[in-house]
Amino acid sequence: IFAALxxxxxxxxxxxxxxxxxxxxxxxxxxxxxxSQFFASKKIDVFKFSDPNEPxxxxxxxxxxxTLNQVDRSKFIQYGDLFNGYVMGFYFSRHNTTxxxxxxxxxxxxxADRWTIAHETSHALLDQxxxxxxxxNEAIDLENLRNAKEDYEESMRLFRSFGSFPSDELVLRTFxxxxxxxxAVVKFTHDYELEEVRIERYLxxxxxxKPQLKLDPRTYQKSFxxxxxxxxxxxxxxxxxxxxxxxxxxxxxxxxxxxxxDKIGEQLSLMEKQRILIEGTxxxxxxxx
Length: 289
What we know:
Layout: H1 10-14, H2 21-27, H3 32-41, E1 44-49, H4 62-65, E2 69-70, E3 89-92, E4 104-109, H5 114-129, H6 138-162, H7 168-209, H8 217-251, H9 254-259, H10 261-282
Parallel strand pairs: 1-2, 1-4
Antiparallel strand pairs: 3-4
Helix pairs in contact: 5-7, 6-7, 7-8, 7-10, 8-10
């Protein structure tokens, strides 16, 4: 019933950094010693934390997890909630300015299964393949998104106070803030939600086509929920951004609309391209707006 649901469209695959298929395929059949050597070769540090909950997978990687050191939680103070056992693993880039690490780092629950290890490793390897200026820094990405949205909301407060935009400068400034915000939304959905979907869909395809790997069917079932969640989040964020552009175009004067018509069209075109990318990445798992 679930067969073939995890295949991405060729158009979607072409717009992403190539997935590290050979490395992930190999990782899933490595011994604990080979895994340690693999992560060392990739300059990725791996730690574990004690999970207070019962294991949810039949495939917990006990032998490998036993080789790991406990994580120093003081380096991840802002992410303390991640250690409550509801997350099986997480990845931090060394470029993340909110954590005190020198190398890319994966932190695993001591109940993590091979699927989780492969998932977090996929994040790390994809990040290593990014050009230097495109490395993921979640803290900066969130800050840019928040600042752009705040600039837009401040301009809209002035619009509501005056009942119109009092100057050409404010119209252009408002549109610039919208442009920055919507571009940040596109980047965030591409680098975060859709990356989660890509990884889960690839691992799902391995479950479907390579039964010899003996990946856990319960984790496979949970993957459908996780993919749907991220697809819905990406679609909703993009929908909200598009609605902001469309609303802005209705409240400016005809004169201003003529001036920035092409720029508005460019942003709507960007939104449409991202909508198609989300659809190609997510379907047939879930339908978008």
